[in-house]
Amino acid sequence: MNSKAKPIPDGYHSVTPYILVNDVPKALEFYKRAFGAEELLRLEMKPGQIAHAEFKIGNSVIMISGITPQMKLAPNTGDSRDVCFMLYVNDVDAAAKTAIAAGMKVVKEVQDQFYGDRTGTFEDPFGNVWSIGTHIEDVSTEETTNCMQKLYGDKS
Questions:
Q1: CB 112 within 8 A of CB 118
Q2: CA torsion sign, 150 to 152 to 154 to 155?
Q3: Confidence at residue 117, expressed as pLDDT on a 0 to 100 scale
Q4: Are 80 and 16 in contact (CB under 8 A)?
Q5: How far is CA 120 from CA 18, 20, 30, 95, in A?
Q6: Most buried residue, 10, 63, 101, 125, by CB count within 10 Å?
Q7: How confident is the model at residue 62 (pLDDT cuts 50, 70, 90)?
């Protein structure tokens, strides 16, 4: 365990867009060309297969991923969504209770994640998906990648 982490990590805002695309590497290159985006993080399941990446445009970080069926997220596929909002808060458990009371549906219960956040995923009445979380531990990219590959890696 590292030192006490800030609830909202340095460089992030309370609401962080999380977009879904069919081709993450191609999208990252496009955003670099179109907006001068700076790639901050790339987590690969295996070479060329990006599970999660982050880039910065101006002072805002944007998260990006490909198809994520366990969270009902996929680019333009009927019942799935192509955008998920990441909302960092000081107390995710309290925020989740408030969100549910307001009418949010639970997609994924609040729980500690291997990448250092405690998050839950919710769907609002308009079909938008929100991941609400508190950053609870600073975890290295290497450790995050290792955990991700153990959890979601090739099971064949």
A1: yes
A2: positive
A3: 96
A4: no
A5: 14, 18, 30, 10
A6: 63
A7: very high
Q: Which fold has domain 15-148?
A: 2,3-Dihydroxybiphenyl 1,2-Dioxygenase; domain 1 (3.10.180)
Predicted local confidence at residue 142, as pLDDT: 94
Query: CB 137: neighbour CB atoms within 10 A?
Result: 16
pLDDT tens per residue, range 89-98: 999 999 999 9
Backbone angles phi, psi at 51, to 5 degrees: -85, -35
Q: Which two tokens stand for residue 82?
A: 């192509």
Domain ranges of the chain: 15-148
* Whole-number pLDDT of residue 66: 81
Q: Write down the mean pLDDT value for the chain.
A: 87
